[in-house]
Design a protein that fits this description.
The complex is a heterodimer of chains A (394) and B (291). Chain A has 394 residues and is α/β, with parallel strands linked by helices. Helix content of chain A is 45%, strand content 19%. Chain A folds into 2 domains: 32-153 and 292-366, Rossmann fold, CATH 3.40.50.2300; 157-290 and 369-387, Rossmann fold. Chain A is built from 13 helices and 15 strands. In chain A, β4 (132-134), α5 (139-143) and β5 (149-154) form a beta-alpha-beta unit. Chain B is mainly α. Chain B has a single domain (2-290), classed as ABC transporter involved in vitamin B12 uptake, BtuC. In chain B, α1 (2-32) packs across α6 (163-173), α1 runs antiparallel to α8 (185-207) and α9 (218-232) runs parallel beside α11. The chains are: A alpha/beta (394), B mainly alpha (291). The interface between A and B is medium-sized, with 33 and 34 residues.
């Protein structure tokens, strides 16, 4: 070789270098999968408005990773959760998933708790054929028939059924009204509730909608009051849910309100005063309070000490989900088909928040809790638990 | 009837906030020709200035509000020197794109500084309400309407009764002529940005107790203020006020009497109607009439 030849870049050497560069991530990933920890992907809204709940399951997944590894990992091998931010956008959620699928190649996924993002990611998950847990509530996600998706929160139809039960049995509603956020979650919940009221022989006096970015709900609340609603069911997200409760109080509304779980998560509760919660009932995924005792007490106290905020049911769902995933991996390994089959067969698995039993559509949770704030405080107390396990199809 | 008056009060209160944001839009547009796409983030900064002073620094109301508005004035000056002045000789579209970039930066700065959880910014008249014939009027709503009216009055005095305001109007009409007349144009342009930031600060402080302080609150405000400006007339102060009130009332009344599902369609549909039929808005002048 002549002295100057080292500087010459031939087309052949250039192509070789490009090929090597392109193949490097795959090689590194394959090496990591064989010799490093077991990689788990998590697409979570870490920034943006949806991060109010997203940060909860980001935190609880970190806690679960730590706990699983402390307990010996998966048969001696640690797990590592690789996060990608979905923000508040479906396209970002898809990009986050595709990035993980192509670069990290996880053996399991946790998807966000937002149904629209779950729906957007579902076709991509079907392509890679790896099991995933998600927490979006919309029934349409499970109706899509993606056998790789497992829901670790109550479906919206379950929550709606709990809210209707609260209205009918706790508040003895005769003329209920419904206020809902205008998206898959809200529309689905409102329609399911209306059907259940109708089945119970009770007519809904009015259904009002609002947009995800709306900030004024006076027109909707006054319209429902004007129609004579004796109870108002509200399907909401955390921030708008808190705003609805607050504006109802500002308008002097005395009608009892039954809110879905989002308005009672810590991120929403910190925006409310005890007075705002007067005359408000809520249907939450699970009643989270140290007074429950046992593993719940331990989880709630440890989460608070570790992250400085109160845990919410969304976070707990992902913690339970991670523990369930770990148990499955310990029993059948990380082969996607074996793990999917194991999860599909799970019956009466005792998590902290729920007893998990997956039905043929991948729904694992079939119970909710009706709660109410203790008078003069923001501390929630359990009114009753509603279990639909034995109630048949909703 | 009680419901109608309740809706009118709510619509006027939220419309007042839109009007203040729209006035900020108009002042900057009239003086510089720039459509400030960061206007919503200016309002968001105003709310968070309140959070910083009243909640974080725990200042009492008067000094907390004063400090928040001083911070906003400083921010307006900073915006002028760091963003507008270096780009003033660039094409207008460059400056407009810069305002978009600054808006995104502001949102992320707020996110990094205050986090993603919203705050409850209290009002000095928190919890006070007056009930008149079944209409519950929160004292804060009355305060918002009164403060907006006072701000509009002060702006009128500034623009029509003080040399500085008359100078600002001169710069808005013809910057070259104003310079030839010996006016300190840069100083007056800086004042326009400071004034816009101050108005956004007032809007933000008024809005915080009605909505929650949230780093994502800027975009919806900017959209509504933009619609208000187009309906009222781009470049017209009375137009911004009327437009703001109109948007506030139309979204509340539209949601109640037409359909809550289509309430945004109503105000934005009207905006599109104006763009098609009367693009200069209610009070705006056609561009060729300016000369």
């Amino acid at each position: 070789m002549h002295k100057g030849e080292a500087m010459v870049l031939t087309r052949k050497s250039f192509l070789k270098a490009m090929l090597a560069a392109a193949a490097a991530p795959c090689a590194v990933s394959a090496y990591a999968q064989q010799n490093g920890p077991i990689l788990i992907g998590a697409t979570v809204p870490i920034t943006g408005p949806l991060s109010l709940t997203g940060k909860q399951y980001y935190n609880s997944l970190l806690m679960a990773e730590e706990d699983i590894n402390k307990a010996g990992g998966i048969n001696g091998k640690d797990i590592k959760i690789v996060f990608e931010d979905t923000q508040a956008s479906n396209s970002t959620a898809v990009n986050a998933f595709v990035k993980l699928a192509q670069e990290t190649k996880p053996v399991f996924y946790f998807l966000s708790s937002y149904s629209t993002q779950n729906l957007a990611v579902s076709p991509e998950l079907k392509k890679v054929q790896v099991p995933a847990m998600y927490a979006g509530g919309a029934d349409v996600v499970a109706e899509g028939g993606n056998e790789w998706m497992f829901r670790i929160r109550p479906a919206d139809s379950v929550s709606a059924a709990g809210m209707v039960q609260c209205a009918l049995t706790v508040l003895k509603a005769k003329k209920p009204g419904i206020l809902y956020i205008q998206n898959d979650f809200g529309q689905g919940g409102a329609q399911t509730s209306a059907k259940r009221f109708k089945a119970a022989g009770v007519s809904v006096v009015g259904m009002e909608a609002y947009g995800q970015n709306d900030k004024d709900f006076s027109a909707q609340l006054l319209s429902l009051r004007g129609k004579g609603a004796d109870v108002i069911l509200i399907f909401d997200y955390p921030q708008d849910g808190a705003l609805v409760l607050r504006q109802a109080k500002m308008l002097g509304l005395t009608t009892p309100l039954v809110t879905s779980s989002a308005a009672l998560v810590p991120a929403a509760l910190q925006l409310l005063s005890p007075a705002d919660l007067d005359n408000v009932w809520g249907v939450v995924d699970t009643f989270m309070d140290p007074s429950v005792g046992g593993r719940m007490k331990h989880f709630v106290e440890r989460y608070k000490a570790k992250f400085g905020t109160d845990a919410d049911p969304y976070g707990l769902a992902y913690y339970d989900g991670a523990m369930l995933m770990a148990e499955g991996m310990r029993k059948v390994g990380t082969d996607p088909n074996a793990l999917r089959a194991w999860l599909a067969a799970v019956k009466n698995w005792q998590g902290i928040g729920h007893v998990y039993t997956f039905d043929d559509k991948g729904n694992g949770v079939h119970d909710v809790a009706i709660v109410k704030a203790k008078p003069g405080t923001k501390a929630l107390e359990l009114v009753q638990t509603v279990n639909f396990n034995s109630a048949g199809p909703l | 009837m009680a419901d109608l008056s309740q809706l009118l009060i709510n619509g006027l209160a939220i419309g007042s906030v839109y009007a203040l944001a729209a006035i900020g839009f108009v002042i900057v547009y009239s003086a510089t020709g720039v459509v400030n796409f960061a206007a919503g983030q200016f309002v968001m900064f105003g709310t968070f200035a309140g959070v910083a002073m009243l909640i974080n620094a725990r200042l009492p109301w008067p000094s907390g509000y004063g400090a928040a508005l001083a911070a906003m004035a400083l921010f307006g000056a900073l915006f002028f020197f760091v963003v507008y002045l270096p780009l003033r000789k660039s094409p207008i579209v460059t400056i407009i794109v810069a305002t978009v970039a600054v808006g995104i930066t502001m949102q992320n700065v707020a996110l990094l500084t205050f986090g993603s959880w919203p705050f409850r910014l209290p009002s000095p008249v928190e919890g006070w309400t007056v009930t008149i014939a079944g209409t519950v009027v929160p004292a804060h709503f009355v305060a918002v309407i009164v403060v907006t009216a006072v701000m509009v009055g002060l702006l009128w005095l500034l623009f029509y009764r003080t040399p500085v305001g008359i100078g600002m109007r001169a710069v808005a009409q013809d910057i070259q002529a104003a310079r030839l007349m010996g006016l300190k144009v840069n100083r007056l342009l800086a004042l326009s940005w400071i004034l816009a930031a101050l108005l956004a600060g007032v809007a933000g402080l008024m809005l915080g107790p009605i909505w929650f302080a949230d780093v994502n609150m800027g975009d919806p405000i900017a959209l509504k203020a933009f619609a208000a400006t187009i309906i009222g007339g781009f470049g017209s102060l009375p137009g911004a006020i009327v437009g703001g009130m109109f948007v506030g009332l139309s979204e509340v009344l539209g949601a109640s009497y037409v359909s809550s599902a289509y309430k945004d369609l109503i105000s934005f549909g009207i905006m599109i109607g104006f763009l098609l039929v009367r693009p200069q808005g209610v009070f705006g002048e056609r561009i060729q009439d300016r000369g």
